[in-house]
């Protein structure tokens, strides 16, 4: 273990064409060279003690701070300096000296372990430079793009602000207009309503007259039908043949009961039949119908009125107005109602008479009033819809403007965009400021890996990470969440995703928006210590 | 690792209600109580009393070393055969079987390392009441009492142990079912019958008669033989049994056995792991017996006699005067009842412990280890089942595990993390997700597409990997392993003769019959580098789920009526995991041509498992109670031979607080198997994820482990040679001091280090008992000296790991902690010489190549004795026949507790003398000798004057 001192022959910056030799103990950086003077007692760098120089790097730890053994593994807290000519110099823990593993690219850490290490500094230096070069280029371009993004964002921001205030102004106008239209509508609806009511009233009256007439005719008809012996009287016996008229429904129409129906007499003539008619007409079954009870002849007739009814709704005008606004569902309900109407009954044939049920069309005057009112309603609705639309737009712009799009708004362009990454199993989707999701490639539903939470970088670079949380819950675990790490890139791309812990995802995302202003060129070519 | 989330949809749905109904603790209803296990209930219903057994002294036959004697049960006239052996090393073996069993009863093979050598039995006395035999040692005698049958082992006038003194010898003889013949045919030879029918349909009648005749004949013989038998009652569960939805066909009927042992004067019994319970066994009166039945228990509870993953049917009794042991060699489901009483003995009131063993099948085969010292019992047991396998040195270092490291990049990143944070580790582990669809011996083609490259990267850093290989094999006709097992007909069969299938990680799975030596031989070949593709010599193996775990089986394990060749699973259950690890370890040995030592971790185990590798305490939880429990659990295992024990550092289920994690690292660093592990659903917990302070604390704990690796290695070498445990309860070294008997919050490593881990949240101090009147103990961190035989309060901070070195010992360390143990191979040693009251100390140093069998096959090792006496410290060769050269040297010698010398001189083997520089700290009497520089394998002496 006597390889205590090393003559470091260091070729410096070959490109510069000269070389120097700097003597110092193994593992000592040039910056500390002056503390290790050959053949002079060495004082531990913490000042704790002074030892003869031959105990520096003698493979025994004398200094508490490990400074006497920069080139051996003797001190648990020591560190070894690799010069790494051609690459970056570095310190490694002294426990890595002669452990059989090549740590320094210049191989100086493995001087006595039997490990065969290749000097890879030149190659690493080249790769490093290339990488830095590339990164610098990316940073440079990315930074330019970022400026554009910032400008664009600024422009958009202004545009949005402008649009917002414009919309807010518009909104006021629209609101006023809506109020005006409301008044117009109300004015037009008043005469419409009155005319409709008039029309309805007239039709009700008309209907009553027709009804009475029909009843009378029916009564005459029934009288003839009952008067079996055609003697001009309907007798108790004749009535008894209609057992359906039995008032106590015991299955037999007794003489007394029939008499009662006839108003307490044995028989009535056509003129006095009216009293009896009133008491029997509800139950009476025409003899011709009774004969063929199984048949259901009025079916066709009774169905016809349904469509016919539509143009003549009995609903009042207010309902009619509602109906215009009804959505599909209500329309369906309406139809269902029609469909659910019980099939016309033979017991109420008069109700199925089409012509009588149908309200006659409005007269021209009323129609004109309705048309005029409808126009005002349409106008009002249109204006209302427009106002709502504008409200939505304002809300949306306000929301967008409320996001923290970075110190210069450089992340603005990510808003309302989505970026996908396809892996062997899943398609991952990042919609910045919105959510992250995962969808199996071969079927299966999408899983929410988190909704926008906040910027989550460390204090000094808050905007280097985003946190999305409260995603779909994990079985026996937390809700899924995703951390998105942002790095500088020319393009805006999801680079990778992983799940380091169950249900905690990590996504790497490049975007010019995080590119920093590149360092001046000369920094890249700094050969470090050399 | 237990079943949880990563089961595919179907399986998950199918199992959810069963497995996941309780999230926070074990679902006890999944596991049987004694009452729910028919034989245990039947047996436990037999209360102590007059034994119906009588020894037929006239049948006694005595050969040189074997005595046989028939026993008869006066109730049913069934005869048993008792065999007694006196074994070398002060043991007695008692075997009891049926004299003429209907069928052979299972006798456990492969657990004993050899047929135990016997010594001659001498008949001293004999009369009509019994006989007396000499057991050779001192005044030890064995007394056989004829009526009722009873055995007493005496030492002079003192009864050491009595068998059947409480009359609990119960031997359920094999019998035919007492109902119709036709029913019998269908239940006993049903499957064969079906085959006959289908193949020879035309001959059905004739064959049926044939079978019938046979059966009738047997029946007739049987009836003849037991003519005067009083009809025994059929009891429920004798011929079939159901638990939850599972039924056990029990074609052989009742077969259980039981025997009681009484230890007069004994208050402390230990052993019969595995239970999450106190070190000292508790009485089971009025509660459940301790159960030995290897089971995959989801989120096990603490301080509970429920069965866990492994079973070692060995119990130790201890008093200040004598330690004894019982080894109940039976692999079937076993229950152990322990009761204690106070009995009048020799005029005084003395404690007594009664132990009753109950097993479902097999025979009574019990080894009585008579001590008398604890180390004697341990040697005696080691002579029967072998010693701890000697692990590769690196296996004693730190292991980093998690379910799961996701892919190669993840492995690389974690590996880099250890370097970045300068924390050493030797092994990184891959759990089940690394496979291609839970097909063991394969790699996930996407996540681990380049396993060899990954292993090479680790190898370049002198690190290693472990992959999991479980014994359940996915039923998939395109899977090589399955195809071969099926084509070789190596699967366990269900009761109807088809391949037994159950649900496990891969879905539907078969279970290879590891009890079959051909199967094991084939399994071992699967670890060859050209069979297990993508593997290299730095890949080792982990056998999990080998109870075996069957998600949809009774008690999450295999149906007892499954068939291993001619034996039922009932007979061999507790052996399954033992055989899995045996075959796997054999595979690792074979792949290196017999050169390299294997490393295999198992969850299930049995007596003898120590020969094949390490065990861990299964799926614990990130709770302080589980951290505490890791100590008695591993101590109990150490007492029964299994030294290489550890608990998942951090806790498997749930998430540890940083404080708990740090404390667990600190405790784990001083337990034999040191592995961090975590459940799939828990957040990441690599050591550097909890801030710089916690990272530093964990780093320090792991570094302490690495500095002590020479001591660990030497302890394991000794465990391998002698069976003495590495991690020891205090009473083992201080058997005469009752104050040590129940201590389970601290332990000894070897005999020289005492460790009292901090296992309480927010702890400000611990009280450690430092044993030994006249001993001195030195705090290894402060070198402060403490007298033995006192309780010492030690204030603690987060940085504290209370550890003490015994005065009188020399411990070797390597203080240049590197990134893996292999990197430290050639590093120099520092000797810590802690002197006792007499000013002397001694220790050992063991060195070999750290990973091959050359130490054993070619005597390539260094074993030295270090002695400090009368001011001279010398290193002398303990093994002159061995040879090994090491590059390691002695860089420093630290004496603790010595006065300041005026000079120190080193004399080397060639007689050359040279002065040594030293530093002395009078406050702590600490003397540090600078750089003796001698080779660690050389003879040398250092004189202090």
From TrEMBL, chain A:
A molecular function (GO) term: calcium ion binding
Pfam families, sorted: PRKCSH-like, PRKCSH_1
Signal sequence extent: 1-19
GO CC list: glucosidase II complex
Biological process, per Gene Ontology: liver development; N-glycan processing
Acidic residues: compositionally biased ranges: 311-339
Domain of life of the organism encoding this protein: Eukaryota
EF-hand domain sequence ranges: 214-249
Coiled-coil regions listed: 146-184, 373-400
Domain MRH: 416-517
Segments of this protein annotated with the region Disordered: 286-362
Keyword terms: Coiled coil, Disulfide bond, Endoplasmic reticulum, Signal
Protein name, entry field: Glucosidase 2 subunit beta
Record organism: Clupea harengus
Gene: prkcsh
From TrEMBL, chain B:
Pfam families: Gal_mutarotas_2 (PF13802), Glyco_hydro_31_2nd (PF01055), Glyco_hydro_31_3rd (PF21365)
GO BP annotation list: carbohydrate metabolic process; N-glycan processing
UniProt keyword annotations, A-Z: Endoplasmic reticulum, Glycoprotein, Glycosidase, Golgi apparatus, Hydrolase, Signal
Catalytic activity: N(4)-(alpha-D-Glc-(1->3)-alpha-D-Man-(1->2)-alpha-D-Man-(1->2)-alpha-D-Man-(1->3)-[alpha-D-Man-(1->2)-alpha-D-Man-(1->3)-[alpha-D-Man-(1->2)-alpha-D-Man-(1->6)]-alpha-D-Man-(1->6)]-beta-D-Man-(1->4)-beta-D-GlcNAc-(1->4)-beta-D-GlcNAc)-L-asparaginyl-[protein] + H2O = N(4)-(alpha-D-Man-(1->2)-alpha-D-Man-(1->2)-alpha-D-Man-(1->3)-[alpha-D-Man-(1->2)-alpha-D-Man-(1->3)-[alpha-D-Man-(1->2)-alpha-D-Man-(1->6)]-alpha-D-Man-(1->6)]-beta-D-Man-(1->4)-beta-D-GlcNAc-(1->4)-beta-D-GlcNAc)-L-asparaginyl-[protein] (N-glucan mannose isomer 9A1,2,3B1,2,3) + beta-D-glucose; N(4)-(alpha-D-Glc-(1->3)-alpha-D-Glc-(1->3)-alpha-D-Man-(1->2)-alpha-D-Man-(1->2)-alpha-D-Man-(1->3)-[alpha-D-Man-(1->2)-alpha-D-Man-(1->3)-[alpha-D-Man-(1->2)-alpha-D-Man-(1->6)]-alpha-D-Man-(1->6)]-beta-D-Man-(1->4)-beta-D-GlcNAc-(1->4)-beta-D-GlcNAc)-L-asparaginyl-[protein] + H2O = N(4)-(alpha-D-Glc-(1->3)-alpha-D-Man-(1->2)-alpha-D-Man-(1->2)-alpha-D-Man-(1->3)-[alpha-D-Man-(1->2)-alpha-D-Man-(1->3)-[alpha-D-Man-(1->2)-alpha-D-Man-(1->6)]-alpha-D-Man-(1->6)]-beta-D-Man-(1->4)-beta-D-GlcNAc-(1->4)-beta-D-GlcNAc)-L-asparaginyl-[protein] + beta-D-glucose
Top-level EC class as recorded in UniProt: hydrolase
EC number(s) on file: 3.2.1.207
Subcellular location: Endoplasmic reticulum; Golgi apparatus
Coarse class of the protein's main subcellular location: endoplasmic reticulum
Domain Glycoside hydrolase family 31 N-terminal, chain residue ranges per copy: 83-337
Residue numbers spanned by region Disordered: 223-255
Any one GO CC term of the record: Golgi apparatus
GO terms of molecular function: carbohydrate binding; Glc2Man9GlcNAc2 oligosaccharide glucosidase activity; glucan 1,3-alpha-glucosidase activity
Comp. bias regions, Acidic residues: 223-235
Signal peptide coordinates: 1-25
Glycoside hydrolase family 31 TIM barrel domain boundaries: 389-715
Superkingdom per UniProt: Eukaryota
Membership in a protein family: Belongs to the glycosyl hydrolase 31 family.
Protein name as catalogued: Neutral alpha-glucosidase AB
Gene: LOC105906688
């Amino acid at each position: 273990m006597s390889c205590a001192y090393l003559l470091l022959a260091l070729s410096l910056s070959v490109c510069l064409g000269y070389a120097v030799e700097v003597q110092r103990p193994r593992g000592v950086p040039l910056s500390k060279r002056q503390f290790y003077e050959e053949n002079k007692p060495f004082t531990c760098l913490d000042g704790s003690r002074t030892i003869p120089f031959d105990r520096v790097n003698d493979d025994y730890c004398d200094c508490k701070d490990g400074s006497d053994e920069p080139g051996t593994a003797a001190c648990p807290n020591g560190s070894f300096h690799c010069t790494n000519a051609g690459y970056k110099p570095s310190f490694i823990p002294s426990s890595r000296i002669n452990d059989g593993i090549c740590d320094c690219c210049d191989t100086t850490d493995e001087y006595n372990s039997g490990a065969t290490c290749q000097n890879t500094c030149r190659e690493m230096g080249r790769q490093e430079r290339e990488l830095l070069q590339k990164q610098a280029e990316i940073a440079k371009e990315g930074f330019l793009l970022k400026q554009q993004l910032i400008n664009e964002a600024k422009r958009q921001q202004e545009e949005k602000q402008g649009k917002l205030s414009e919309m807010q102004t518009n909104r006021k106008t629209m609101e006023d207009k809506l109020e005006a239209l409301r008044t117009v509508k109300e004015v037009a609806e008043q005469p419409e309503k009155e005319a409709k009511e008039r029309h309805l009233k007239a039709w009700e009256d008309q209907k009553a007259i027709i009804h009475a007439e029909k009843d009378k005719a029916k009564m005459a008809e029934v009288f003839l039908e009952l008067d079996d012996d055609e003697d001009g009287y309907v007798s108790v016996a004749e009535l008894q043949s209609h057992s359906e008229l039995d008032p106590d429904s015991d299955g037999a129409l007794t003489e007394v009961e029939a008499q009662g129906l006839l108003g307490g007499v044995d028989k009535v003539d056509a003129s006095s039949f009216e009293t009896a008619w009133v008491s029997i007409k509800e139950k009476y079954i025409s003899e011709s119908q009774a004969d063929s009870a199984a048949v259901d002849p009025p079916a066709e007739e009774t169905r016809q009125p349904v469509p016919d009814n539509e143009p003549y709704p009995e609903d009042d005008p207010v309902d009619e107005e509602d109906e215009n606004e009804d959505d599909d569902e209500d329309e369906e309900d309406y139809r269902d109602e029609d469909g659910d109407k019980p099939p016309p009954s033979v017991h109420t044939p008069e109700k199925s008479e089409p012509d009588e049920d149908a309200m006659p069309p409005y007269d021209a005057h009323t129609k004109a009033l309705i048309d005029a009112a409808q126009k005002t309603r349409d106008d009002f609705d249109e204006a209302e819809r427009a106002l709502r639309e504008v409200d939505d737009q304002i809300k949306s712009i306000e929301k967008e403007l409320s996001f923290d799009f970075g110190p210069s708004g450089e992340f603005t362009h990510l808003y309302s965009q989505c970026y996908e990454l396809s892996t062997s199993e899943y398609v991952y989707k990042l919609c910045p400021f919105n959510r992250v999701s995962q969808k199996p490639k071969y079927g299966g539903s999408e899983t929410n890996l988190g909704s926008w939470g906040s910027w989550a970088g460390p204090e000094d670079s808050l905007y280097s990470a985003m946190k999305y949380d409260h995603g779909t819950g994990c079985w026996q675990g937390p809700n899924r969440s995703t951390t998105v790490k942002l790095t500088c890139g020319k393009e805006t791309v999801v680079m990778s995703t992983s799940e380091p812990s169950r249900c905690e995802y990590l996504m790497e995302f490049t975007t010019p928006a995080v590119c920093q202003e590149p360092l001046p060129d000369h920094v890249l070519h700094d050969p470090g210590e050399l | 690792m237990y079943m949880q989330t990563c089961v595919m949809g179907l399986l998950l749905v199918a199992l959810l209600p069963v497995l996941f109904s309780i999230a926070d603790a074990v679902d006890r209803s999944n596991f049987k109580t004694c009452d729910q296990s028919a034989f245990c209930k039947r047996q436990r219903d037999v209360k102590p009393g007059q034994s119906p057994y009588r020894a037929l002294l006239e049948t006694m036959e005595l050969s040189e070393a074997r005595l046989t004697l028939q026993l008869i049960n006066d109730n049913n006239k069934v005869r048993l055969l008792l065999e007694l052996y006196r074994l070398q090393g002060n043991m007695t073996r008692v075997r009891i079987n049926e004299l003429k069993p209907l069928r052979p009863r299972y006798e456990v093979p492969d657990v004993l390392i050899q047929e135990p050598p016997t010594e001659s039995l001498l008949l001293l006395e004999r009369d009509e009441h019994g006989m007396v035999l000499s057991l050779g040692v001192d005044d030890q005698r064995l007394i056989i009492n004829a009526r009722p049958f009873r055995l007493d082992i005496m030492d002079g006038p003192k009864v050491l142990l009595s068998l059947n003194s409480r009359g609990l010898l119960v031997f359920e003889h094999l019998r035919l079912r007492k109902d119709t013949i036709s029913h019998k045919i269908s239940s006993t030879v049903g499957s064969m019958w079906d085959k006959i029918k289908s193949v020879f349909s035309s001959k059905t009648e004739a064959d049926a008669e044939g079978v019938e005749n046979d059966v009738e004949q047997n029946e007739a013989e049987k009836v003849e033989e037991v003519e005067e038998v009083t009809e025994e009652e059929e009891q429920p569960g004798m011929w079939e049994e159901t638990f939850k939805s599972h039924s056990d066909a029990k074609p052989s009927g009742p077969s259980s056995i039981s025997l009681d042992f009484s230890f007069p004067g004994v208050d402390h019994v230990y052993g019969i792991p595995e239970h999450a319970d106190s070190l000292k066994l508790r009485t089971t009166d009025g509660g459940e017996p301790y159960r030995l039945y290897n089971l995959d228990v989801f989120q096990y509870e603490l301080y509970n006699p429920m069965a866990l993953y492994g079973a070692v049917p060995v119990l130790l009794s201890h008093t200040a005067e004598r330690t004894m042991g019982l080894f109940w060699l039976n692999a079937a489901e076993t229950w152990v009842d322990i009761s204690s009483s106070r009995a009048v003995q020799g005029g005084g009131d003395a404690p007594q412990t009664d132990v009753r063993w109950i097993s479902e099948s097999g025979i009574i085969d019990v080894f009585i280890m008579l001590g008398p010292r604890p180390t004697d019992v341990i040697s005696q047991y080691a002579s029967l089942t072998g010693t701890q396998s000697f692990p590769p040195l690196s296996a004693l270092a730190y292991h980093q595990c998690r379910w799961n490291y996701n892919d190669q990049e993840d492995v690389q990143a974690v590996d880099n993390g250890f370097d970045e944070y300068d924390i050493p580790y030797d092994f990184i582990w891959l759990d089940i997700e690394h496979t291609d669809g839970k097909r063991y011996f394969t790699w996930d083609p996407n996540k681990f597409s380049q396993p060899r490259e990954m292993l090479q990267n680790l190898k370049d850093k002198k690190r290693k990997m472990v992959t999991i290989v479980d014994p359940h094999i996915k039923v998939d006709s395109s899977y090589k392993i399955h195809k071969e097992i099926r084509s070789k007909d190596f699967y366990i069969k269900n009761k109807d003769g088809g391949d037994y299938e159950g649900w496990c990680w891969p879905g539907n799975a078969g279970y290879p019959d590891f009890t079959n030596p051909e199967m094991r031989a084939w399994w071992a070949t699967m670890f060859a580098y050209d069979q297990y593709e993508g593997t290299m010599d730095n890949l080792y193996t982990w056998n999990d789920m080998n109870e075996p775990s069957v998600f949809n089986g009774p008690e999450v394990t295999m149906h007892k009526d499954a068939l291993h060749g001619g034996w039922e699973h009932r007979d061999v259950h507790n052996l399954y995991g033992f055989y899995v690890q045996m075959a796997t370890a054999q595979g690792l040995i074979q792949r290196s041509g017999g050169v390299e030592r294997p490393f295999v971790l198992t969850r299930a185990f049995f007596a003898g498992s120590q020969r094949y590798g390490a065990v861990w305490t299964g799926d614990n939880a990130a709770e302080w109670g589980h951290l505490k429990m890791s100590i008695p659990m591993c101590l109990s295992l150490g007492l029964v031979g299994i030294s290489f024990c550890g608990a998942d550092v951090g806790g498997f289920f749930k998430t540890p607080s940083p404080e708990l994690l740090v404390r667990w690292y600190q405790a784990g660093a001083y337990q034999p198997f040191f592995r961090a592990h975590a459940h799939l659903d828990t957040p990441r917990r690599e050591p550097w994820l909890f801030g710089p302070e916690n990272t530093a604390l964990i780093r320090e704990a792991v570094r302490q482990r690495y500095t002590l690796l020479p001591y660990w290695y030497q302890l394991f070498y000794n465990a391998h040679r002698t069976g003495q445990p590495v991690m020891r309860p205090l009473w083992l070294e201080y058997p005469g001091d009752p104050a040590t008997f129940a201590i389970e919050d601290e332990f000894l490593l070897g005999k020289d280090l005492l460790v009292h881990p901090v296992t309480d949240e927010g702890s400000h101090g611990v009280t450690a008992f430092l044993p030994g009147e006249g001993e001195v103990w030195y705090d290894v961190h402060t070198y402060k000296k403490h007298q033995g035989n006192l309780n010492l309060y030690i204030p603690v901070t987060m940085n504290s790991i209370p550890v003490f070195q015994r005065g009188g010992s020399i411990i070797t360390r390597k203080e240049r902690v590197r990134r893996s143990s292999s990197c430290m191979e050639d590093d120099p040693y520092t000797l810590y010489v802690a002197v006792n009251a007499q000013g002397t100390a001694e220790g050992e140093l063991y060195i070999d190549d750290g990973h091959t069998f050359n130490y054993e096959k070619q005597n390539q090792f260094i074993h030295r004795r270090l002695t400090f006496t009368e001011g001279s410290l010398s290193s002398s060769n303990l093994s002159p026949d061995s040879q090994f050269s090491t590059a390691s040297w002695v860089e420093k010698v630290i004496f603790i507790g010595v006065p300041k010398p005026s000079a120190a001189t080193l004399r080397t083997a060639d007689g050359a003398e040279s002065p040594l520089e030293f530093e002395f700290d009078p406050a702590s009497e600490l003397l540090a000798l600078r750089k003796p520089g001698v080779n660690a394998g050389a003879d040398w002496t250092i004189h202090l004057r």
